Structures are given as C-alpha cells and as structure tokens.
Amino acid sequence: MSQTSTHRPAPAGQERAPAPALATDTVVYLVLIALTWMVWQISRQGFFEAGDDVGYWLGVAGGVMMLLLFSYPLRKHFRFAQGWGRVKWWFLVHMLLGVGGPLLILLHSTFHVGSLNAAVALYSMVIVALSGVVGRFIYARVHRGLRGEVVSLKELQAHVSPEQEDVRSRLAFAPTVEAKLRAFEQTELQAKPGWLTYFRQVFWLPIMQVFVYRQCVSELKAPIRKLAAHSHWSAEDLTRRERHARKLVRRYLTAVVKVAHYTAYEKLFSLWHVAHIPFVYLLVISAIVHVIAVHAY
Question: How far apart are CA 210 and CA 216, in angstroms?
Fold first, then answer.
C-alpha cells in the first residue's frame, strides 16, 4: 500500500449524505411528548368537562379527524382514488390527523373514562396511536422520506458494495481489521432469515457495530504507527491518517448495517401492519358504540 492511500479522498459519486433518521425521530417524539403534556395540563384546568358543549365538540372534532385517517388507505389502494393528488401529501396529512385526532380525544376525555364503552374506545385509540408511532419509525427506515417509494435491497447493495471494496483496499496495511470487517459483513448479510434474526439485527446490531468499530480502531493503532515510522510521517500526518482510517471503518460498518436493517425493517413493517389492523377495527367498533351510547342516554 502506498503512503498516501490511507487518506485518498473518495470519488465524488461515492459520497453519501449522512442519514438524519435518528435526529429526526428524536425531534418528532419530543414534540409528541410535549404536545401530550400540554393537552394534559389544559385538561387539568377545569375549563370544560367531557359532557358539556366544549367537551362534546372537542370529541366530535377529534372523531372526525380519526375518521379522515381512512382517506389515506383509500387514496393508496383504490383505483378510483389514484389520481387524487400525490401520495406523499396524503401521507403527511395522515400523520397530522393521526396526531391531532388522538390529542383532541384525550382533551375531550380530560384523561378520564366514565363508562366501559368509553374506556374501550379510549384505550383502543391510544393503542392505535402508539402503533402508528411505531409504524412511522419503521416506515421511515424502509421508504424514502414521505414519497412512499420503496428502496429495493438490490439497489442498496449495488450502492454499498463498491464503497466496501474501496474501503478494504485502503485498509490493506491492517489485515486483521480487514478480516473483522469481512466477518461482520458475512455474518449479517448472510444470516439465516427468521424473526429472531430480524429482531436481533434491529435491536442488537447497532450495539455490535459499536463493539466492532472499537475493536477495529484499537487494532489499527499498531500497523498504522508502524507504517508511519517506515514512511517518516510527521505527528500531524499520523493524526490525520488515523482519523481517516477510523472514518473508513465507520463507513464500512454503516454500509453493512444499512443493508441488513433494510431487510429486517421490511419484515417488521409487514408484521406491524398485520398487528395494527385488528386494533383499528376495534377502535372503529368501540367508537361507534360510544357515540350511540352518548346520544341514546
């Protein structure tokens, strides 16, 4: 390996913008928590009760918003609705309704339930809303933003593989590190399909990525310093090339995790969809019973 190969810049076509998924998720969930806390605080002020006019119309508004949630699957799956605007805007509205509707229902209830049917309706709504939050988390990792365009696994692998080869070629001076990276890739991308594998890759793989990264960084020190002594690098050169070598390892591991996660999240999204639908039907039935009971008695 040449003296300059540890800091050769990657070709322009291989540069990737960092995925801000975690930061975006954190902001979204903090906003949801803040909104829920605000609604709870308002409900404690005694401005209204669930049965008075204000409480009643808050419940109606929340119920209508929950009902309008069904417009998104209608637009997505029925042919006659295919031309009704772009799917990404429907999905955005679907998410906003999925937040606003439950918040208004919680405000309407003042976080209390007075009957069995009201309890079933409220708890069903909470389960559906939380399920929607989980679904959004998985959806964001399978789809490109809000466009609803599914990224194929082959496309990800085609994008990732050239970069992996490039990283390995630049780490040829550290064969033990290369061996660890290859082993990590083979273990994860050739893992036996199954739910245990998918859950492990979603929850444990990011932790393993950190462990492998730290091991590789530790094993980089001796060979890169040996190369520095042989090539008479300055202290500044050594620091810069150590930093770049760590970056190469991180890019490689991130590429492998990205491909493995796509497969895992795709399977989990299908499982989520199966689990989500029954609670939606339970919510609809219990809400209808609740509305009838309110107006009948």
Answer: 10
- Domain coverage including residue 188: 153-264
Going from the C-alpha of 274 to that of each of 136, 137, 247, 248, 279, the distances in angstroms are 15, 16, 40, 40, 10
Crossing angle of helices 235-296 and 53-68, rounded to 10°: 120
Instruction: Report the candidate in 249, 272, 146, 155 with the shortest Cα–Cα distance to residue 202.
Output: 272
- Span 131-143, average pLDDT: 77
As a whole number of Å, the CA-based R_g of the chain is 26
Residue 81 tokens read as: 């609705």
Average pLDDT over residues 111-126: 77
Q: How far apart are the first and last CA of the chain?
A: 83
CB distance 129 to 98 below 8 Å: yes
In angstroms, rounded to a whole number, what is the distance separating the alpha carbons of residues 273 and 21?
21
Say if residue 146 is in the same domain as residue 277: yes
pLDDT above 50 (res 263): yes
* Residue 39 neighbours by CB under 8 Å, 6+ apart: 103, 106, 107
Q: Is residue 204 in a domain?
A: yes
Q: Mean pLDDT for the chain?
A: 77
Q: Mean pLDDT throughout 69-73? A: 77
- Do 178 and 146 lie in one domain? The reply is no
The answer as to whether 5 is a domain residue is: no
Residue 120: band (very low, low, confident or very high) from pLDDT cuts 50, 70, 90:
confident
pLDDT at res. 21: 58
146, 270 contact by CB (below 8 A): no
Q: Are 42 and 140 in the same domain?
A: yes
Q: How far apart are the C-alpha atoms of 291 and 63, rounded to whole Å? A: 10
Contact 37, 66 (CB under 8 A): no
- Residue type at 287 in one-letter notation: A
